[in-house]
Design goal:
Layout (H helix, E strand, L loop, with lengths): L1 E5 L2 E5 L20 E4 L5 E2 L2 H12 L4 E2 L6 E2 L2 H12 L4 E2 L6 E2 L2 H12 L4 E2 L6 E2 L2 H12 L4 E2 L6 E2 L2 H12 L4 E2 L6 E2 L2 H12 L4 E2 L6 E2 L2 H12 L4 E2 L6 E2 L2 H12 L4 E2 L6 E2 L2 H12 L4 E2 L6 E2 L2 H12 L4 E2 L6 E2 L2 H12 L4 E2 L6 E2 L2 H12 L4 E2 L6 E2 L2 H12 L4 E2 L6 E2 L2 H13 L1
Parallel strand pairs: 2-3
Antiparallel strand pairs: 1-2, 3-4, 5-6, 7-8, 9-10, 11-12, 13-14, 15-16, 17-18, 19-20, 21-22, 23-24, 25-26, 27-28, 29-30
Protein name: Zinc finger protein 227
GO cellular component, one term: chromosome
Keywords: DNA-binding, Metal-binding, Nucleus, Repeat, Transcription, Transcription regulation, Zinc, Zinc-finger
Length: 424
């Protein structure tokens, strides 16, 4: 290998090929001496950087990490990599004191304080502080996805996204939380997860001052103020404020259910629904009411339950002004005005305004009685009927007459009794 210099250009010669770079084509390059790679034609201002770049073609990686055995072509890259194991961050920002493991990352970070964005997209005019970010951004316009999965042939615009995707095939989750030991395939996911323990919410809404642990959640929230719904379904044209909402919605049309329970093999279209379902097997109820200490398997159930104590009813009927603690109850109530009964029995064609009513009705045809008394083993088709029956064993009579103080085990029995007093 040898180096030779011509006017305005320098070449690193190897046995493979020689490429000529005409730097005079760019007005900004006229007064620069460039070092050009003979394999790929890439230009560099320094010969040392060209030699480093050339190692990428030779694939020689003589430096190996003692911890994870990852190999590097440069000793400096190994040194920087080793900081991922030691968590060493020797470069500190003198403005906000944020620490970095690489000097280049600190340099780029400082542009945030200067608000310096030197690179602009000539298509949509969006500005960027890093040229690499501009190059990646361009792929939105070109739809270029240069990174390819050898397993399932899925394409990606970012190499980091491909690397993360590959872990879905290998099931590798190299990043572990040192508090709860939950594992993650991406370092960023671990960082976000850690805020559950620290309750850190660094992103704040300028409109209502609500705080968020993730920037993407803040961006989605801001659209509740702007009413913006930029993501549209190409099948039914429903609009959504968040891309992930559109993705989940699309599964209604595709019938895709990518999340499967390892216990009973039930499939789900949303991962969070699978997580909630798994608690039916583990009996886990991680959400507890701080007033009555009742436990719930879902955070949403706890939130709704809390309204029993606060008597909060945020959902109001526009027709009769009746208030409800749950949105679903309002939706069902509205059908009393519209007389809508969208749920139909495929056996007898009876129609119902509520899905759970249809489910209960269906047991007439199947003779299913899933609720069993632990005392006498009598079975019931309704959980409410089981609860009433259990009072025959406990002799509990929770419904009391305000007039004469007589007690009843069923609400309807009290209601019937009250007629005695109203007749008088």
């Amino acid at each position: 290998m040898e180096t030779y210099i011509k006017t305005n250009e320098t070449h690193l010669i190897c046995d493979l090929s020689i490429k000529t770079v005409d730097t005079n084509k760019n007005e900004n390059d006229k007064n620069e001496n460039y070092f050009a790679c003979d394999i790929c034609g890439q230009k560099f201002l320094q010969e040392t950087i060209l030699k480093i770049h050339f190692d990428n073609h030779t694939k020689e990686k003589p430096y190996s990490c003692l911890v994870c055995n990852k190999q590097f072509s440069r000793e400096g890259d190994l040194t920087v990599h080793f900081r991922t194991h030691t968590n060493e961050k020797p470069y500190s920002c003198d403005v906000c004191h944020k620490d970095f493991s690489r000097k280049g990352n600190l340099k780029v970070h400082k542009r945030i304080h200067k608000n310096e964005k030197a690179y602009s997209c000539d298509v949509c005019h969006k500005d960027f502080s890093q040229k690499s970010n501009l190059n990646v951004h361009y792929r939105i316009h070109t739809n270029e996805k240069p990174y390819y999965c050898d397993v399932c042939h899925k394409d990606f615009s970012l190499k980091v996204n491909l690397n993360v995707h590959l872990q879905t095939h290998t099931k590798e989750k190299p990043f572990s939380c040192d508090l709860c030991h939950k594992d993650f395939s991406r370092k960023g996911d671990l960082k976000v997860h850690y805020r559950i323990h620290t309750t850190e919410k660094p992103y704040s809404c300028d409109v209502c001052n609500k705080d968020f642990s993730q920037k993407s959640n803040l961006n989605g929230h801001l659209r509740t103020h702007t009413k913006e719904k930029p993501f549209s379904c190409d099948v039914c044209h429903n609009n959504f404020s968040r891309k992930d909402e559109l993705k989940v919605h699309s599964r209604i049309h595709t019938k895709e259910k990518p999340y499967s329970c390892d216990v009973c093999y039930k499939d789900f279209s949303v991962k969070s629904n699978l997580n909630v379902h798994l608690r039916t097997h583990t009996k886990e109820k991680p959400f507890s009411c701080d007033l009555c200490h009742k436990d719930f398997s879902r955070k949403g159930e706890l939130k709704v339950h809390h309204r029993i104590h606060t008597n909060e009813k945020p959902y109001s009927c526009d027709v009769c002004n009746k208030d409800f603690s749950q949105k679903n109850n309002l939706i069902v109530h509205l059908r009393t005005h519209t007389n809508e009964k969208p749920f139909s029995c495929d056996v007898c064609h009876n129609n119902f305004s509520r899905k759970d009513e249809l489910k209960v009705h269906y047991r007439i045809h199947t003779n299913e009685k899933p609720y069993s008394c632990d005392v006498c083993l009598k079975v019931f088709s309704l959980k409410g009927n089981l609860n009433v029956h259990l009072r025959t064993h406990t002799n509990e009579k929770p419904f009391s007459c305000d007039v004469c103080g007589k007690n009843y085990c069923q609400k309807r029995s009290l209601k019937k009794h009250n007629r005695i007093h109203t007749i008088k």
